[in-house]
Amino acid sequence: MKYSPRAAHLGVVACQLCGLVCESVPDQGKPIQCPRCRSRLHRRRPDSIARGWAFLLAGLIAYIPANVLPVMYSSLLGHSSESTILLGVVEFWDSGSYGIALIIFIASVVVPCSKFLLLGALLFTAQQRSHRAMLERARLYRLIELIGYWSMLDVMVVAVVAALVKFQTLSVIEPRAGIFFFGLMVILTMLSAMSFDPRLIWDGEQADASRA
Known about the structure:
- This protein has 212 residues and is mostly helical.
- It has 2 domains: 1-43, no CATH class; 46-211, Butyryl-CoA Dehydrogenase, subunit A, domain 3 (Up-down Bundle).
- It contains 8 helices and 5 strands.
- A hairpin with a 2-residue loop joins β3 and β4.
- α2 (48-68) runs antiparallel to α7 (177-195).
């Protein structure tokens, strides 16, 4: 099986900050810097897998209180209640707001669970230097980056609803602790995705070539 040449074989390394492709200089005891942005050059992000796992596990831990604790307090005509994420989805659905209920369910349940599974799979396969489905895993990483922009949608819905209700004097909606943990979970999973070096996916290609 024929493999494409790698940057290490060509004697070049790409800057992770500005993207400049630089000539790789042998290590002489001091860190190599990018000639354009002066950031330190690395062939791979240092401790990429360890940092990715740490942020991912922390995000998974934060996701538990995000679902258990109430995310919103509402008061209407003297009747007050606190609702969790799933209870809020049910209340919006029962009130006929099917679109909002579906958006919150996708943003708060489907997207986070998918990110946990996909990031865990990417980190595990990269750690094992697997050579299977490398192109598909690279596409999955780009998908995680894409859906990351919509991860805070649930927080935005609560903020917008609270802002709209402020105009009505007989009702009150306020965020609660659960929304803080949900936002923390989103940030941690984004940091996990940012810590993961997608070039590790293709290191399995080199491992496969060495066994051939």
